[in-house]
Amino acid sequence: MVRGLLNEEANSFKSRFITMLAELSISDWERLESEAKKLLDVNAELTATDSETMTVEEAEAANIKSRSNHAKKTAQSASSIIDGMRKISKE
Description:
By secondary structure, the chain is an all-alpha fold.
């Protein structure tokens, strides 16, 4: 992977994205980790209910509930990543 990155052009998306990730602060990484764990929890909940018969309406309601519970925090994390990407694109 590192060898492939070194062979990338400096302005390629891959290179810029890795650079952005490298510049994240510790709190940004902690926030990303927290959001990833929440996504895993939501997937685990959906998988657990898959063993039961779930209607389309119940699945949609579960999805909406899980998204609304995490929307604000996710938006903050996404905003940080987008800001980082904007910074990279200006360089």
